[in-house]
Specification:
The protein is mostly beta strands. It has a single domain, classed as Porin. 10% of the residues lie in helices and 57% in strands. It has two helices and eight strands, in the order H-H-E-E-E-E-E-E-E-E. An eight-stranded antiparallel β-barrel has the order 1-2-3-4-5-6-7-8. Strand 1 (32-44) and strand 2 (51-62) form a beta hairpin. The two termini are 37 Å apart.
Length: 198
């Protein structure tokens, strides 16, 4: 729970940008392309605890309502208790999303998000698993989808902060955890990004 409190603190780092937003006469962002870094927290339903991640995103604003997003991240390990042994899983997700904005005002734009992703999974089993036939460290690629909502806060025409929540639907391949069933990577994701549009 303490880790979840760090994400709002990251957003506070961008407070000076927000002050500038109040003085900007026009922060409407449309028909433009942007890139920027993002940070987040991912908690899979079956993991013992969540993990932080960092990455980069690119967004295309196709007018004021519709947008597209591509992102790549690196997620640090989460531990899964699989009974007599455990596994640490790291991920590199590559995702593509569609964004539907509700331009309430120049400085306050909520949006819905839906998309697909390819997840490169790096699974490292504990020492207890070494004697179990068919269970060994593995790398694999799984596919999933996500739904969520967020908020973009434009500071001016070229800079914006976005914060969002997504639920990932991601069931790993049948061989990822050996013969263990009902252990998957579906879960909650919170992220914050700083976009630079040009």
């Amino acid at each position: 729970m303490k880790k979840l409190l760090l994400l709002p603190l990251v957003a506070l780092l961008f407070t000076p940008f927000a002050a500038h937003a109040q003085s900007s006469s026009d922060a409407t962002i449309s028909n433009t392309l942007g890139v920027g870094p993002r940070l987040g927290y991912y908690q899979a339903d079956d993991a013992d605890e969540g993990s932080f991640y960092g990455g980069a995103q690119i967004r295309a604003r196709l007018g004021r309502i519709v947008g597209l997003e591509g992102a790549i991240d690196y997620r640090t390990s989460q531990e899964y208790d699989l009974g007599s042994y455990s596994a640490d899983v790291r991920q590199i997700p590559v995702t593509a999303s569609a964004l539907l904005y509700l331009p309430v005002s120049e400085h306050f734009q909520p949006y819905g998000v839906a998309g697909l992703g390819a997840y490169y999974d790096m699974v490292d089993f504990s020492e207890e698993a070494e004697s179990i036939p068919g269970v060994e460290d593995d790398h694999s690629v799984d596919f999933g989808y996500h739904l969520g909502f967020g908020l973009e806060l434009p500071f001016n025409r070229n800079t914006a902060l976005n914060v969002d929540y997504r639920y990932i639907f991601l069931d790993p391949g049948s061989d990822t955890f050996g013969d263990v069933e009902d252990a998957d990577f579906s879960g909650n994701v919170l992220s914050a990004g700083l976009m630079f549009y040009f």
